[in-house]
Amino acid sequence: MKKIIIILILGFSTMLQAQNTVSGTVTNKNNQPIKGVSIYVIELHKGTTTDDNGKYILTNLPNGSLKLNFVLVGFSSQNKAIEKLQKENTLNIILEEAVFEMDEVIVSTAFNKMQSQNVMKVEHESIKSLQRQGTATLIEGLATIPGVSQVSTGTSIGKPVIRGLSGNRVLVYSQGVRMENQQFGDEHGLGLNDAGVESVEVIKGPASLLYGSDALGGVLYFNPEKFADANTLTANFSQKLFSNTLGSNSSLGLKTSTENWKFLARGTYNTHSDYRISGGDRVTNTRYNETDFKTAIGYSDSKFSSVLRYNYNNLDLGIPEDGIGEQSSSKNTGFPRQGVFNNLLSLNSVFYFEDSKLDVDLGYIVNDRSEFEDSDIAGLHMKLKTLNYDAKYHLPSMGRLESIVGIQGMHQKNTNFGDEYLIPDAMTNDFGVFGTVNYEWKTNVLQAGLRFDNRQIRTEENGTLGEEGYFKAIDKSFNSFNASLGYKTNFADDLTFRFNLASGFRAPNLAELTSNGVHEGTNRYEVGNSELKTEQNLQTDLNLEYKTDHFEFFANGFYNHINNYIYTAPAGIQIDNNDVFEYIQNNAKLYGGEVGLHFHPHPLDWLHYETSFETVTATKQNGDYLPLIPANNWNNTIRAEFKIKNWLQEGFASFNVNTTLNQNNVSGFETKTNGYTLLNLGLGGTVKVGKTTFDVNLNGNNLLDKSYIAHLSRLKTDGIPNIGRNVVLGVNFNL
Length: 735
Prior knowledge:
By secondary structure, this protein is mainly beta. It is globular, with a radius of gyration of 26 Å. It is built from five helices and 40 strands. The chain has a 22-stranded antiparallel barrel.
């Protein structure tokens, strides 16, 4: 069957002849060939693997320059550039053994450098490594990255927080385009499933130079899973079971490639009951169900590369209101509940010229969100349609100098169909133009950029003047200039220093401009302010890294000053027994950072110890604390790696102690939160039984069934604890 499918797909490309090729041999320092090295060209979405003799070949490559990434676990990764491809090119590589994690190519920054070459410190984590920690959702996994937290509503709804900033201040990218899903709402989660996602990159700080408005606090950039190597067909099935929520996550994927064509598809179903707290009670109506489907088709030749991707995500979410109420293990959501349908279509293309290239990304997103209060008729029904475009022209390189100029924009329409309005019908248009340069010499890199943006927001009048739910029509325009400057150098062979200074901005969102009614879940009447100004920030980042064969140390520090920070404050009056809160502005500052180390003692090659500490302090100009700032956290992990004969490869066992400290630095409308310590255990590896090979993970999270309340939990005001002990079993079969 596999051969038939491959032959059928090959039929599409029989008339296409290879033009440029790169071939070679990958060896170790003893000149021995290395089998199984992955060679991947990111912008072509094309890869291959070395054979038993360490040999590889890539065909149908474009003219001009090209970067090849060589990766194998246990060896230092390499990113090699060929400046001008000939018809036949030979590139032999020597890989050195490495104890620590592989150096990764960073896609979210402009020049796609290896992390060791990158001016900006970007956190890169594979989804596989996050899943090995046994977290139930993608956002829970992200919250294990130093500097990243989540605002949660039970286990089903989580919003990312980067160094104390969240909501519209953090931009999410998937499939190369920005996700738009009404992220202003406290109960509007990420809306993204980790199935079919390869890795995530976290930019902690202003990224407005590349991404425009809403990247003031940082960016989460999700890289989709890679296509199969040329002329191969692969399939896999994964299953995860969760003891706490009686949950199940099932995923089935198929992918195949020829020299030119590529295709993949993946379907996933995720279902959970109400989560159980310490002691055995379940939190009523925290159950949820999720259906996710991803597919992609790509083509590349010597002139261009193009990938069309589609993602459908359907979420059925219960909204907890009664706390510990009726006990049930049902997975059918009760009232109130949300229904969210998200459709994401993207087209990513690269056009190659003689010594330059044009990178074009187009995206179309439809977010259909309904809320059902006490019947199957939606009281709230919003549909958000967003068209994104992004074009970057990579100018011909001039020696060590690389340059990019680009334009970026968005056309967005919000339409209400229900009786209840959170925000009015509106039209938003963004347009930005930018340029950035990168200059390298010896171990030094200097990067700088400049950008201008305009955002226009037009809303329609709705309701009756003087009554709840009235929105006056507004027509606003916001402009902003932003710049960035970064420098990276090696003080010594093992010591890297980075300095970045960047500005960012965020135009006020529709809720902040127009709100006029009781905010769901807070029992307060919120009043928008159509005269709000653009938030503008300036952040300084310092990064110091020391790395040897058996020891790693890092220290990140930041200072973030925000002008015109938008927040709510009491007006001193009530409407219908609800306190009135108004949106106002004040200058604010946030500062803190992350520090950590990774110790691999010699000669105990199987043992690893990792520890990290993160802290954020955030205040207004008058010295009062900002709300929703995560508590300080200290995370410790001991991990052993091993193999048992031929039946268990890449085995691991980890013991994690995660300590969250007291959060006493709270705003006037928050309560202080006590600290807590959670113990977590993980076991797993790759098992081979006969001709069958599969990955298995067994995790126990919150082993002692600790009762605790996270500071950023939206159920905190009702005194409802977070999830209790949860045992997770996961298997992944390559079919």
